[in-house]
Design brief:
By secondary structure, this protein is of the alpha/beta class. The protein is built from 16 helices and 13 strands. The protein folds into three domains: 129 residues, Response regulator (Rossmann fold), CATH 3.40.50; 79 residues, Winged helix-like DNA-binding domain superfamily/Winged helix DNA-binding domain (Arc Repressor Mutant, subunit A, Orthogonal Bundle); 144 residues, Response regulator (Rossmann fold). Helix 8 packs across helix 9.
Length: 378
């Protein structure tokens, strides 16, 4: 559970954030206030994990000298700045004050939830809209640099670049690497020249974006490189094809096994010659045995009850969603209507999967073929 406190001037903004986070069992808003003066006593008492605040509250707390906490008995809360492009010029001071996330005021509810989870997990996050475009020299068209730092920078420059992505200042980087802050500044100037960046602020934002993209790619890679199959329980051939196309575009390397209803899926799962799936992708409305009936049978089977299940259904009703979560599903998605939306859904699922520890093999389940061979050889 990540406990969150809101210090935001606008009442509607606080109410909107509360509404966005309601229903997420891992995120809990424990209190809110319109300003730092009224909010900080509550922060001191409640000890939240994250504080979402605006620029006025950040400046007030920074000026008060009360950062990051009034007591050394507990860790300082992590700060997430709710801001706009104009205020992003204060990036350096915000990072020094303890801000680890920068949220655009137009952030969608889904992006907000993902951002808070990532910051709570120790990452830095910057909304894409807050990352500055670079103006092309001829047409004046905004573009984001597409250069690869790992191929353009020297080994030392890459070290400085990675530490910059971690939000460190020149002195901190120098202390880490055993060089002077002046030498760090020289390396940063060379990095900016090689990457086509105009200033320290743009370098820091670009480094944060690069780190974020690399971490996202690594998380998606864990999903795509799974060796175990995915079991798709779906009676609609068009949806089966859409899922297969979306996974191919990731690209996912695992095998997709399809079953047309719950009975076929249970038969496949109980066949000891099949490698157990790392995930079951489940439709709800199916003939013979629907998704609810399949879940009830699965959870009664000791050898299968721990398998992760992601529901992909046409039903947007909260009652269906709550019933499914009560049955122990891992995630719930409403089916998209276009191929591109299907692809985006699986990119989201891949990143979500990368945040989680791999589930254990169910008791009594078959091992992977290579593991079977090693066990037989032993």
């Amino acid at each position: 559970m990540t406990r969150i406190f809101l210090i935001l001037a606008h009442t509607l903004t606080r109410a909107g954030l509360r509404n966005c986070l309601a229903g997420n069992t891992d995120l809990q808003v424990v209190g809110d206030a319109p300003d730092a003066a009224g909010g900080w006593p509550q922060v001191t008492q409640l000890r939240p994990d994250l504080i979402v605040l605006d620029g006025v509250a950040l400046n007030a707390l920074h000026a008060s000298g009360r950062f990051p906490t009034d007591s050394d008995k507990s860790p300082a809360p992590t700060l997430v700045l709710f801001t706009d492009n104009d205020a992003m010029e204060q990036t350096d001071s915000a990072l020094q004050a303890g801000v680890r996330g920068f949220l655009d005021t137009a952030t969608t509810p889904e992006a907000l939830i993902s951002a808070l989870r990532r910051v709570a997990a120790g990452e830095r996050y910057v909304s894409p809209a807050l990352l500055p475009p670079r103006v092309g020299p001829e047409e004046g068209v905004p573009v984001i640099p597409e250069t690869n730092p790992e191929s353009l920078l020297s080994a030392r420059e890459l070290e400085v670049f990675i530490l910059t992505a971690g939000g460190l200042e020149s002195k901190e980087i120098g202390d880490r690497l055993g060089i002077s802050p002046r030498t760090v500044d020289v390396h940063r100037a060379n990095i900016r020249q090689k990457l086509g960046l105009s200033g320290v602020h743009e370098l820091m934002r670009y480094a944060l974006m690069w780190k974020q993209n690399r971490e996202r790619t690594n998380r998606a890679g864990r999903f795509c490189n799974e060796r175990r199959p995915m079991l798709l329980v779906e009676d609609d051939e068009v949806d089966v094809l859409s899922v297969q196309r979306a996974l191919a575009r990731l690209p996912a390397r695992f095998q997709v096994e399809a079953a047309r209803n719950g009975e076929e899926a249970l038969a496949w799962l109980r066949n000891h010659g099949n490698v157990p799936p790392f995930m079951i992708l489940l439709d709800i409305n199916m003939p013979r045995m629907n998704g609810h009936e399949f879940l009830a049978e699965l959870r009664k089977d000791p050898a299968l009850k721990t398998l992760p299940i992601v529901v992909l259904t046409t039903s947007p009703h909260e009652a269906d969603r709550d019933r499914l979560y009560a049955a122990g599903i891992t995630a719930y998605f409403v089916k998209p209507t276009t191929t591109e939306d299907f692809s985006e859904l699986f990119r989201t699922l891949a990143e979500f999967w990368g945040f989680n520890s791999p589930p254990p093999y169910p008791a009594g389940a078959s091992a992977l073929p290579a593991e079977r061979e090693r066990a037989q050889a032993a």
